[in-house]
From TrEMBL:
<protein>
    <submittedName>
        <fullName>Uncharacterized protein</fullName>
    </submittedName>
</protein>
<feature type="domain" description="SET">
    <location>
        <begin position="297"/>
        <end position="648"/>
    </location>
</feature>
<dbReference type="GO" id="GO:0032259">
    <property type="term" value="P:methylation"/>
</dbReference>
<keyword id="KW-0479">Metal-binding</keyword>
<keyword id="KW-0862">Zinc</keyword>
<feature type="domain" description="MYND-type">
    <location>
        <begin position="360"/>
        <end position="427"/>
    </location>
</feature>
<dbReference type="GO" id="GO:0042799">
    <property type="term" value="F:histone H4K20 methyltransferase activity"/>
</dbReference>
<dbReference type="InterPro" id="IPR011990">
    <property type="entry name" value="TPR-like_helical_dom_sf"/>
</dbReference>
<dbReference type="GO" id="GO:0008270">
    <property type="term" value="F:zinc ion binding"/>
</dbReference>
<dbReference type="InterPro" id="IPR001214">
    <property type="entry name" value="SET_dom"/>
</dbReference>
<keyword id="KW-0808">Transferase</keyword>
<dbReference type="Pfam" id="PF01753">
    <property type="entry name" value="zf-MYND"/>
</dbReference>
<keyword id="KW-0949">S-adenosyl-L-methionine</keyword>
<keyword id="KW-0489">Methyltransferase</keyword>
<feature type="domain" description="MYND-type">
    <location>
        <begin position="684"/>
        <end position="725"/>
    </location>
</feature>
<dbReference type="GO" id="GO:0045814">
    <property type="term" value="P:negative regulation of gene expression, epigenetic"/>
</dbReference>
<dbReference type="InterPro" id="IPR046341">
    <property type="entry name" value="SET_dom_sf"/>
</dbReference>
Length: 735
């Protein structure tokens, strides 16, 4: 079970020196390319071309070829070494790590691979040291829109009615101008001054009295109304506060008045109206008021997620890092906090393994056969064991798409639902473009480009199908909404409704996927240009980039927690332990259970932020009988505490962890471990003083913090190191 972590795309500069030697290299590359076009499954050609690219110092191409050679033939350890070193040189650290790992599977002791891994570690650390490490992360509110959701206009009217009926609050028309005696006006002004002073002094009862005196005289004074509303708000009288604000006519309301109204409406639990007021406040403040922007997103988080978390011990709120999950009651270590089902999912093929087991392409249910599990052993098994397998291995009845005959499902229900949701549009039999997408996916991103060259067309660390499925789902919903409204052509509202479920997922990253992968942009447009029923989707560069980063920030890898193997094993437990049949099969059982992995986007799970001192862990789970994820408490969690998972292997030292996080997710981790551990023995983890030639002494317990003096050690211990020293780390596998 892994979070899909990846390094963001970087544009590499190509080096090519125009020397006779390099001309010769170019010639060899040309010859090899021709051979590759003829025999695209020949690993040797790719390896040889990778060697040529390495000579040219074109490390990106060298890595791509070496990786592909290894995909075709895992035993090519030299390709792992070459590719890993090339990837390290061009900064593709994630790629380097995974290609070295493939090699190590073949030969754990290969010296060149081990050397390569050490160089990789050094390069990651160096890049962290030389990168612009100004630790200003992103601003989460800037990533979130304030645009209304479809149907909000009707909800707005409904909430206005609730405000009126339940709290007797409504917009008040402008009061007629009153002639006020100058003496009285003078007294009102004095009372207002006194009210203001009391407010500053924190004497809110006195302030209220003074403002009320003044408002009674100057009933139409909008400044007095707003000030009194603020005092009512502080004195926890939201109804009176709101009534005062309603006396201020809309065009005269300041950003502060709209903001206060938004906060009051949050208390009345009228989120759409609250959003309306806060949006107005944001517009008037020209987006510069951070508090308003955060309030808006808090309202939105609660309105979108409260229904999802209704029976759960958690809530979703908005913080400086965007959405975050908080405990609403104490949770015990080991408890499952919540489970979540994916909104979109697709098979995941890791770089280092072939997907030997099939899973339902729609729901992810494992379709593992006895052969998938026992492989060759099945043929050589003794007769008794074979009989046990035949009688106890659950029968799965995979159903294949009747059009393409390529995509498998666990049942006709899944096949039909998949057809309606996405497969009708994406079925490889539908068009050249859909077949091409299928082939690129099967070839882990490789295919023939428009100019006839065989190259990596998709370099995402997840399947391009995720994006295609998002768009296919949107197209399917647009059709539904359009038909439901009896229209022949979709309206803006239909599009907005169809896109709404995907608005929950944050998208953040640098670089342009559309620029890096123009071929993908082209085939996606070829596919979605005609979605049937007159519906067209224009996949612009911005659309591709947005969806790409949504997937990159939120995807989670998971697999069916209860496979046919588990059911088989359960069946065995019904045997008498002395039964020779049961004993006959034991020797064939293996700890390694092959899985059908999927990567999916999970609405609630995707709100979990990262911490290197995570208090929850994500595991394979089941939701309504189909595979999903479960979030389990790793430690006791107190009410009000944020739940954090980890996106990386937290056993790594701080410098490496932070470098991985920055490269993969573009933020500097500020978790307690990152704050109260150090980088190395040459910098004091407390005061940051640099050591000379003699390294500082480290914390004797965790060896992850170093100090120039015992005073610094004591301060750091008190301030937070004691919280992080010696906590159990999550050795999440990361890809
Ligand atoms: C799976 S989402 C987590 C929820 C996210 N905060 C949101 O608003 O949707 C992952 C993204 O959250 C942000 N994030 C997660 N953990 C963070 C942390 N410790 N510090 C800063 N940003 C974090 C990053 O933008 C990351 O790409």
């Amino acid at each position: 079970m892994i979070f899909l972590c990846f390094f963001q795309t970087h544009n590499m500069t190509e080096t090519s020196k125009d020397t006779p030697k390099s001309k010769e290299t170019d010639k060899v590359i040309k010859q090899l390319s021709a051979k590759i076009n003829k025999e695209p499954k020949n690993a040797g050609h790719f390896f040889k071309r990778a060697q040529q690219y390495s000579k040219k110092e074109d490390y990106e191409k060298c890595f791509n070829d070496a990786k592909h050679a290894l995909d075709l033939d895992e035993s090519l350890v030299d390709a792992a070494v070459l590719g890993g070193e090339a990837a390290t040189k061009c900064g593709k650290f994630q790629g380097a790590h995974s290609i070295f790992s493939i090699g190590l599977k073949q030969n754990k002791k290969d010296e060149n691979l081990i050397k390569g891994l050490k160089k990789l570690q050094r390069a990651i650390v160096d890049s962290y040291d030389t990168e612009d490490t100004t630790e200003q992360g992103y601003n989460a509110v800037d990533l979130c829109t304030q645009s209304p959701y479809p149907g909000d206009d009707q909800l707005l009217n409904l909430e206005k009615e609730i405000l009126d009926r339940r709290h007797d609050i409504r917009e008040v028309s402008r009061l007629p101008k009153k002639e006020i005696d100058p003496d009285l006006r003078q007294r009102a002004a004095q009372a207002a001054m006194a009210g203001h002073k009391s407010m500053i002094a924190g004497k809110f009862t006195d302030a209220l009295e003074s403002f009320t005196y003044a408002v009674d005289i100057e009933t139409d004074n909008i400044i007095l109304r707003r000030l009194r509303a603020e005092v009512f708000f502080i004195n926890q009288d939201p109804v009176s506060a709101m009534k005062d604000l309603m006396h201020i006519q809309k065009p005269e309301r300041t950003a502060d008045a709209w903001k206060l109204g938004g906060k009051l409406l949050m208390e009345f639990k009228l989120p759409v109206l609250a959003e309306f007021w806060l949006r107005k406040a944001s517009e008037l403040a020209k987006g510069k008021d951070e508090e308003t922007a955060i309030c808006f997103q808090k309202v939105r988080a609660h309105r979108l997620y409260d229904p999802l978390t209704k029976d759960m011990p958690v809530t979703v709120d908005f913080t400086m890092y965007g959405k975050a999950v908080f405990a609403v009651k104490d949770i015990k270590a080991g408890d499952i906090v919540f489970s979540d089902a994916p909104i979109v999912t697709t098979p995941y093929i890791a770089d280092d393994k072939k997907q030997v087991v099939k899973g339902c392409n729609h729901c992810g249910t494992s379709l593992m056969t006895a052969r998938d599990y026992f492989q060759g052993k099945l043929d050589n098994m003794d007769a008794t064991a074979k009989e046990v397998v035949e009688n106890n291995w659950p029968v799965t009845k995979p159903v294949v798409c009747s059009e393409c005959k390529l995509v498998t499902y666990c049942s006709n229900i899944c096949k039909n639902t998949a057809w309606e949701r996405h497969h009708e549009l994406l079925c490889p039999s539908r068009s050249k473009a859909t077949k091409k997408l299928y082939d690129i996916d099967q070839n882990k991103g490789w295919g023939t480009d428009v100019d006839g060259t065989w190259k990596e067309l998709w370099s995402g660390h997840f399947s391009a199908y995720i994006l295609a499925k998002i768009w296919a789902n949107i197209a399917a919903d647009v059709k539904l909404w359009m038909k439901q409204d009896g229209k022949d052509v979709p309206e803006m509202m239909h599009w907005a409704k169809a896109k709404a479920p995907f608005r929950k997922f944050i998208a953040f990253g640098v670089g342009s996927a559309a620029n890096d992968m123009p071929y993908i942009l082209k085939i996606m447009n070829d596919i979605f240009r005609d979605c049937g029923d007159g519906i067209k989707m224009d996949i612009t560069e911005q659309e591709l980039n947005g969806r790409y980063y949504q997937a990159a920030c939120n995807l989670q890898i998971y697999s069916d927690p209860v496979t046919p193997y588990h059911k088989f094993y359960d069946n065995l437990s019904n045997f008498n332990p002395e039964d020779p049949k049961a004993l006959s099969i034991l020797k064939y059982l293996d700890d390694k259970i092959p899985s059908a992995s999927f990567s999916g986007m999970f609405p609630l799970h995707a709100c979990l932020n990262h911490s290197c001192m995570n208090n929850v862990e994500v595991s394979d789970g089941e939701v309504n009988g189909v595979p999903g994820v479960s979030v389990r408490a790793k430690t006791d969690i107190k009410e009000g505490e944020e739940l954090t998972t980890t996106y990386i292997d937290t056993t790594m030292p701080r410098r490496l962890r932070r470098a991985w996080m920055y490269k993969s997710f573009n933020f500097w981790c500020q978790c307690p471990r990152c704050q109260f551990e150090g980088d190395d023995a040459y910098s004091c983890s407390n005061c940051k003083k640099r050591a000379g030639d003699t390294p500082f002494k480290g914390c004797g317990k965790c060896h992850r913090a170093w100090y120039c003096s015992s005073d610094c050690q004591k301060i750091n211990w008190k301030e937070g190191h004691k919280l992080v020293c010696g906590v159990a780390h999550s050795k999440a596998d990361y890809s």
